[in-house]
Amino acid sequence: MKSKLISALIISIIMISFSSCENEPATDLTQTSFIPVPASVTATGSSFQIEKSIVVYYEEGEEGLKQTAQFLSEALAQITGTAPLIEVVQELPKEGIYLSLTEDEQNTGNEGYILTIGKELISIDATGAAGSFYGIQTLLQTLPVKAEGDQPIHIATGTVNDFPEYGYRGAMLDVSRHFFDVEDVKRFIDFLATYKMNALHLHLSDDQGWRIEIKSWPKLTEIGGSTEVGGGDGGYYTQEDYTELVNYANERHIIIVPEIDMPGHTNAALASYPELNCDGKATELYTGTEVGFSTLCTRNETTYQFVEDVVREISALTPGPFFHIGGDESHVTAHDDYVYFINRVQKIVDSHGKRVMGWDEIANASLIDNAVVQFWADIKNTTMGVEQGAKVIMSPAKKAYLDMQYDSTTHLGLHWAAYIEVDTAYDWNPATYIEGITKENILGIESPLWTETITNMDELEYMVFPRLPGFAEIGWSSPDLRNWEGYKNRLAQHGKRFEAMGIDYYKSNLVPW
Ligand code: TNX
Q: In this structure, what DSSP letter does residue 230 have?
């Protein structure tokens, strides 16, 4: 009797393990570990099988979807080994994958989409090409990172109806303290695209390096681009390189926000051109990590000719709406000079058709209409900005700084603001973080990666993952749908995605990998 019971038990254990084995078609879409968590997911209890012969269709007349269709075809090829054909159709096809555009009936902006997975047809109906791209990212998260041999791939059926909480979902990369080349930045862009982020802020100049070619001031890169923290070779982007990045980002619905940090953080420029210094003498190049010791000569007209040329050349190469003027930590610029400088420079940016953005200190000036203040440290400054009508990008150093150590044992990073474990990075709400600054004042969030201690892609990836997906979710998903307990389980499922992308990530023991 006893042995019968035991064998029944063994049989049922075997059966359970069979029925939960990977080849069993997935049928419950709500069990998918989506990051960012979508606005709504409903399951319909069956499954769709991806055949090698699957075709990606897009709606005739919507040429903006062609690129999205190509992106999807290439992504599927990575998984199945076969790139689906792409075809234009006039009507809803019966099977395959269909991309189309629709009216924004729910009033969710041009980034919303509805992904419907039926038994024969997957459709992504979006309010704009960006939404279609995000629908594809969601679809890709229902798939394994790689097919196992010839095993068929099944996707659970159902509907994802989704749109973002904030219109600006960014990350910053400091390419000045340590230079990252075009291929590195493209890889960083890929990371953002995977998690539906749409802005890459490039910190293109600082004391240690000037990283973008300015044709009218060639020594900026010749001299100012020649080194970096620690005394390495540095480097810079030619204007062609920068355009290549702009285009690569654009294909992934990401804008580049160029930053030229001024009037402080300018030693690389001051070392390149003596006339930018009040005493007319070029400074020495700098390869240390101190901040707050340099300033442009704010009462000298040459300075404004310089700013005019730099802003003009970079703006002409930048289709995105923003130009970031830095403005942080100008500790050796007299207050009046600082205000005078920011007041003038904002107008230069405006005259080149760009929306001015700056670190929260710029709120000490008389901000022009449409200015954007990036909160990093000072609540008083940020509040002053909002009182002047500015919008805010939330980058609280204590939460959103990707260069902060995870804990005291992390070998890379700094900790002047905080130690930021994966839960701390995730568990905050931009709309309630500063009293009196609410969602209406906020364009979105951005997580900056300063690179004083980060010298290569391996190190970058270790700081960025796994915190970045959490920042992406804060930017995309409603706070009502977010909580750490649920998130950490979803994040754990993304570990194998990081591995498939060759990402060297921090295996926080707060996450059940
Ligand atoms: C502060 S955040 C800075 C940067 C440093 C960073 C290091 C900000 C606007 N300025 O110059 O790289 O701290 O964490």
A: G
- Probe target for ligand 1 pocket from 176, 328, 446, with the most ligand atoms within 8 Å of CB: 328
CATH of the domain at 204: 3.20.20.80
One domain, residues 155 and 39: yes
Which residues in 163-239 belong to E strands, given as ranges? Answer: 168-174, 199-203, 205-206, 209-210
Q: Is 446 noted as a catalytic residue in this protein?
A: no
- Single out the catalytic residue among 329, 435, 452, 473: 329
Decide whether any atom of ligand 1 lies within 6 Å of the 414 Cβ: yes
Confidence of residue 147 (pLDDT cuts 50, 70, 90): confident
Percent of the chain whose predicted confidence (pLDDT) is above 70: 96
Residues 125 and 176 occupy one common structural domain: no
Can you give the residue range of the structural domain that contains 400?
168-482+495-500
Rounded to two decimals, what is the model's pTM? 0.95
In sequence order, the 6+-apart residues with CB closer than 8 A to the CB of 376 are: 328, 359, 360, 395, 396, 397, 401, 448
DSSP state at residue 175: T
> Looking at 162, 188, 221, which one is the last position of a domain?
162
Distances (CA, A) of 103 to 69, 109, 480: 20, 10, 26
- What are residue 383's phi and psi, to 5 degrees? -65, -40
- Kindly list the distances between the CA atom of residue 260 and the CA atoms of 132, 155, 200, 263, 439, in Å, as whole numbers in the listed order: 33, 46, 14, 9, 28
> Ligand 1 atom 7: the closest Cα is on which residue?
450
Q: Give the model confidence (pLDDT) of 340-398 as tens digits.
A: 999 999 999 999 999 999 999 999 999 999 999 999 999 999 999 999 999 999 999 99
Q: How confident is the model over 437-447, as pLDDT tens digits? A: 999 999 999 99
Shared-domain flag, residues 235 and 373: yes
CATH of the domain at 96: 3.30.379.10
